[in-house]
Amino acid sequence: MKSLKAKGIVKCLSCGDALFREHDGVKCNQGHDVCTDCCKTLVENILSEPETKIPAECSLCKVKLNSVRLEMQMTPDQLEVYLMYKAMKDVDPKVDKVMSCPFCKYFEIWAKANSSNFFYCKKQDCKKGSCSVCFKEFKVPKGMAVTEDELGKMKEEGGMLTHHKCYEYKDVKEDWDKAIESGTKRCCPECKVGGIKDDACTHMICDNCNTVWCYFCGKKESDLDKSDPNGNIFKHNEDWEINDKRCPMYLTQIGQIDDRWSCDSDKEAKAFFHKLLTYKNIRNFYRKYKKREFKELCKVFISVENHGFNNQEIFFMNLTKIIRES
């Protein structure tokens, strides 16, 4: 009796349905097959977390999937998103950068040295101009010969020529954005992919590179202070109440010795943790830039002026993560 494979029949890895060997779905190099119906779920799953799931891998053997076959399973909108994230992974960040239109999924790869702060979308049904710093739209001139009327509009508030201020404060704005972003998420110490933990413990395993690390201090397992230097991450949690080089396994444990922290809700404790990180980053930002520079930044970027953080707390709050008894 011949096996299914001998008859040219294979099985879908997801649903188990029989497929012809030369089917229209996805196949990895190890011979694992996914039918076209299950590919729809596969694509949705990949695009739900594109930062960590692109390039796509076989769910069984972790071998990279054939990108051409995978792209054939996507809708035009899905393909645009996929190609943008794929480009972001493929470029060398030291040499190139991915620039995208804020109003559609069109993107381009620019040399990092490119200092232009104007982005012109070439997608037929968009074709909008935008500032690459503040991402706001401006009216694109019809041609090189600009009329006096058009030039006047370009100088009006929100016009193309007003965005030179954005470029002037580009570096300061980038520092501000980094301060906020790095306070609202944690990045894997190995591959730098960022995210926010779930409601479980502080032990993390990176979905992208499988590094084991501590969410609280941000260090990978091999760099952690432990009660047993050869032990695993659990040894990093021992005596955290009295040792400031150690971290708790759960954020809700901290409230036992520091009443600023919630003992009952991991969600509240996590929010307080990221508040401390963000406020510390903003405090350092204020120390780096003069008050006048920050005022100018607020004038140029309304989002910075309306940041919503409590400046009294930023300046005077004790930002020590855990206040231990001395």
TrEMBL record:
Alphabetically ordered keywords of this record: Metal-binding, Repeat, Transferase, Ubl conjugation pathway, Zinc, Zinc-finger
Pfam family, any one: Rcat_RNF216
GO MF term (any one): zinc ion binding
Domain RING-type: 8-240
Family matches, as PANTHER family: UBIQUITIN CONJUGATING ENZYME 7 INTERACTING PROTEIN-RELATED
InterPro entries: LUBAC_E3_Ligases, TRIAD_supradom
Keyword Metal-binding: yes
Protein's name according to its UniProt entry: RING-type domain-containing protein
